[in-house]
Amino acid sequence: MAAVPSIPEPGALLVGLDGSLGGRTSGYDKRLGEMTGVYRDSAALAAATAQHGTEHLVYRVQEHRSGVGAGALVIGTSTLLPGRYGDEFAVTRGHLHRKPDRAELYHCLSGSGVLLMEALDGRGRAVPLTPGAAVHVPGHWVHRSVNVGDVPLVTLFCYPEDAGQNYEIIGAAGGMAQLVVDDGAGGWTTRANPDHLGYRAVAA
Fold this sequence. Notes:
Blueprint: E1 14-15, E2 21-22, E3 26-31, H1 42-52, E4 57-65, E5 73-80, E6 84-85, E7 88-91, E8 104-110, E9 113-119, E10 124-129, E11 134-137, E12 141-147, E13 153-160, H2 168-172, E14 178-182, E15 188-192, H3 200-203
Antiparallel strand pairs: 1-2, 3-4, 4-5, 5-13, 6-7, 7-12, 8-11, 8-13, 9-10, 9-12, 14-15
């Protein structure tokens, strides 16, 4: 008789609109000193770092993991604080999954933002995030969250535990193809990033 695999316990979570996650098993913070190369306007990032310090919080992730490998999920919250770096809005580092066919779900709990997505074949989407809105990100799409408001952007996310994250692909491509910037009229728009080299070569 085959051995029965170890079966993890169910997770009972309490998800707050402020990004708190009761029942979390892990998490991490990203601070200004860790955001070098994320914004195209490096001078604006340097000025913000000089003003606020390298330990200034940019975003916080809280996660719940129960089990590992195929079939297991990572469920968590991302809280992205508002900010501007030149005319660029505050962003997460963004990633493609290490297993690039893995998908992810984002559900906005509070705040106002954009989920910026770019497929490896060159397509791009910028989907507004407002409370209640959700985005299903298919595999093979690079994605990042952008806070276009004046309060924290809080999202609930879920993805397969074996997906992993490839954070390096964006930097290797010269940044994402589009920047989410202030439109000068109290809103946001996208602008082409002239430094973008394309993803295909660096994703191979």
